[in-house]
Amino acid sequence: MNSKINMTIKLRKNGNLKESNKMFSKLINNYHDNY
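^ that's the sequence the OP posted. Answer follows.
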């Protein structure tokens, strides 16, 4: 889980916001499903 978040943050820092946002919403949806 954390590695995915770190990857997403890296994308964001590199200015790849669209891709980063997509990954964040996926992570958030998965998080809700699992807890």
